[in-house]
Structure formats: structure tokens, C-alpha cells
Amino acid sequence: MEYRRFGDTVVARIDRGEEILSKLKKIALAENISLAEISALGAVGDFTVGVYHTAQKEYCSNRFTGDWEIVSLTGSITQMKGEYYAHIHMSAGGADGAVVGGHLNAAVVSATCEMFIHVINGRVERLYDEKTGLNLFSFVS
Fold first, then answer.
1. 3-state class (DSSP) for residue 95
2. Distance between CA atoms of 50 and 69, rounded to whole angstroms?
3. What is the model's pTM?
4. Torsion over CA of 50, 25, 39 and 15, rounded to 10 degrees?
5. Cα angle for residues 51, 41, 14 (degrees, 5° grid)
6. 58 CB neighbour count, 10 Å cutoff
7. How far apart, in whole angstroms, are the C-alpha atoms of residue 48 and residue 62?
8. For the chain, first and last CA: distance in Å?
9. Which pLDDT score is estimated for 140?
């Protein structure tokens, strides 16, 4: 992985064999990022995405391997109890053109991942919501 910061934007290259979420966290902690918008594209060979079942209040995960192009990777960095918290979704297309996606649990780069982290001057916390079972935005002053 290699990255550079240009004002309020971090541009990163995540390399073959590296796991995307762990590298994102490493950058965020090193750059002291508490609020940001994430976008990326690239290629992955092994990834797990999930779908949240609202009635059961739990995620169901699906793992995919092979040659996949990241069609969209988008999300946010916020804080929960003052600690790093990322919420990322990813869609990827396979050789047959079919696209799968959901809440990103893990993704290993097969070729490259080009990521943009737009840092926002502010802070948003997350609080657990009993009704949904999710960690929702909580706006702090």
C-alpha cells in the first residue's frame, strides 16, 4: 500500500494480496481521520459481503472468490465511543457480467485498488439503536 494526502483528500493504492478494510483503517489512524467519505475501484479475488435482515437484526454473509472487478466501493468513516468506525459497501462484477454486493466484511485485492478518502472537517459518532439493531449516526457538536 502507498498513499498521499492532498489537502482534504487521501489518494491510496492498495496492492495485490492486501486486505482493503485493514489498509483503510491503517490510513485513517495514521492520518487521524475521524470523518470521511470513501470511494474506490479495482479488482479483488476474495471478498465477503453481507445483507442485513431487519426482522432478525443480523447480517447474512456471502463469500466470493475468483476474478472480480470492483464496480463500486463506497462508505464512510465515523467514530463509535471515540474509536474508528467504518461502514463500507461494495459491488463487484464477475466474468459473466453479473454483479453482487452488500455490506463489506473483507476483500483481498487481486490486482490493485485505487481509493479516494475525502476527509470532512467534523465528527459524527455512532450509537446503537435498539429498534433497528444498527449503529446509527449521532450528530455531536
1. coil
2. 18
3. 0.96
4. -100
5. 105
6. 11
7. 5
8. 34
9. 75
Our CA angle for 37, 80, 52, nearest 5°, is 75
Q: CA quadruple 51, 124, 108, 66: dihedral positive or negative?
A: positive
Instruction: Please give the grid coordinates belonging to residue 71.
Output: 464496480
Distance (Å, rounded) from C-alpha 25 to C-alpha 78?
11
93-134 pLDDT, tens digit each? 999 999 999 999 999 999 999 999 999 999 999 999 999 999
Chain centroid to Cα 7, Å, comes to: 21
**Mean pLDDT, rounded, for 61-82:** 98
Three-class SS state of 98:
coil
Say whether 25 sits in a helix, a strand or coil.
Answer: helix
